[in-house]
Amino acid sequence: MRYCLIIWLITFTWAAVADNRIEQLMQIVSQDRKDARQVDAMNELAENVASTEVEKALDYARKAEKLARQIGYVQGQAKALEVLGTIHAFQQQKHDDAAEYFTDAYKIYYKAYQEGKLNKSVLYDFITKKIIPAFQLITGKEEDLPRRAKRAVKIYKTLQGEFTPVLAEIAALREQEIRKRDSKLDSAKNALDSKKNELLSKEEELKRKEAEIQNKNQQLNSNKQRQFQLARLNVKLGDSLRRSSDSLKTTMDSLAQMAAHLKVTTETLMLHEIRLQQAAVKALEEENRNLLLQEEKKKQQRIIYLSLAALGAAAIIGFLIFQNYRSQKKLNAELTIQRNELAQKNIEIEMQKEEILTQNQNIMQQNAQIEAQRDKIHAKNQQIIAGLNYASRIQSFMLPSIEHIQQSIPEFFAFYKPRDVVSGDFYWFGKVGEGAATQLIVAAADCTGHGVPGGFMSMIGNKLLDEIVYIRNIHSPEQILNELHKGIIKSLRQNETRNNDGMDIAICVVHPAKQKVTLASAKNPVIYIQNESLCEIKGDKLPIGGVVTEQRDYTLHEIDISQPTMIYMFSDGLQDQFGGPEGKKFMLRNLRNKLAAICDKRIEEQQEAIVQTMKKWMEGYGTVHKQLDDMMLLGFRVGGAPTATA
Fold first, then answer.
1. Mean of the pLDDT values across residues 269-288?
2. Model pTM score
3. Which among 57, 311, 352, 521 could disulfide-bond with 539, CB atoms 3.0 to 4.6 Å apart, if both were Cys?
4. How far apart are CA 605 and CA 599, in angstroms?
5. Displacement of CA 259 from its chain's centroid (Å)
6. Is the dihedral of CA 151, 153, 159, 161 positive or negative?
7. Are strands 425-432 and 439-447 parallel, antiparallel or unpaired?
């Protein structure tokens, strides 16, 4: 407890002194003096408040640097730059700015050191306590640093090449000073050793003389004591002889008196002993009489106690018999009541049994009805499932085969994962023209809804694309989208029914001979990666279908594919899927990052990477997330060498 109090007092005193010092510095700063003392006060204030009020510390240091520059106070300016570098390095982790401040401060310090205006210890402390720790803070972590912080590493390494010779120079000067100081210390040590030896020899001489003096004193004292003791013995011997003679005479007289007294005492003792024997006989007789009386009284008391105990036992036995009778009577009454209650409950149980039997019969009838209905539902489900499977087969026949597409675009893959048996997502491929006029058309569509409704829409969209491209010979992607929009409105009679169903779709047209791709998109984005650079073309915010206007103008985009280019088209089912460690959506950002990571791999590896990524996102974090929508992603590589069109 005492140590805790002392520590508290020291802490309190230190805090009070620190607060008092800060108040003094603020008074100096507030004065309108504009001199070196005010610069030093602002620098010290900045260092004191840097750990708690960073912005205020930066303000003090900047003002100190500005004032020092104005009045030509070089060392104060360097100190302000040092404080700014320290705050940026250790408080704000802004390593580039810190490196620049430290570099400016070093140049000023070094110039003052060369001119003999600065003590070498100030420069040495600045390098070893500020610059080197700031450099070590980011050394060994260069690969983890942001791009701007890596510039600080270069600055520090350049600065290290400049101050390393200076450190060596200061170290050499310090070593010379240490050698001079060690030489002076050796000389002083030798002088002290010689003086010490002189003192030791003098001390031994004094001890020897002191021993001789003590021996002489002891001899003198011994002679004097012997003479004095002989005189005392002579006196004591005379006195002892005189006292022995007187004592012998006195002793003889005493012995005579003791013999007479002993005779009288012996007679008195014999008489006293006779009297004691007589008194003891009387006492024994009296004690025998008292014992006989006490024994008689005890016999009478035992008889009385036994009589009382017998009466008490009889009373207790009678009370217990009465209590037992009452308890038995009460127990018989309770048993009678319980028998009546049991009889009543038996009657109720019999009635409940009959009721339960009736209910069981009703339940069995209901179970039979439920089983019949279940069989009907099962049969209908089987019919529905069979119909859906047949519809799925029809839809799969409608989709172009991957082998057919790869005859024209060898590096092509399709990740296609319907949520239900029938999908609302579909992809379409067409080839028109011959030779240099060959055009390869790829479409990826996400219809309204999924399952059966989405499947119907996909069939309508597929039929309309066949008609627009092959019958009406419309091959420009933005015109295909506009005609598809009109076809959906007409097919679903949306002008009459006000139906808003439709689809989001992107269409790419590859021109192998011209080394370009033209594309247009209704809402769905298209991503392409070329020379390790990822670009995203956002679709127009105009879906296909829905009654707004029949004429819609979609934007035509063009991509130069003279270099190998990876193109990705997809529906929103991937980015909207919930999963991951926090149960959140996959999001377009994660999809872009994944595509950028796999774009250089073979087509088969890319498809497997997408499959495994979505599987892990939905099932690999402890919770299995249900698929919410149809998923589709098309990827193909074109450009560089002419694309095969066979």
1. 56
2. 0.46
3. 521
4. 10
5. 110
6. negative
7. antiparallel
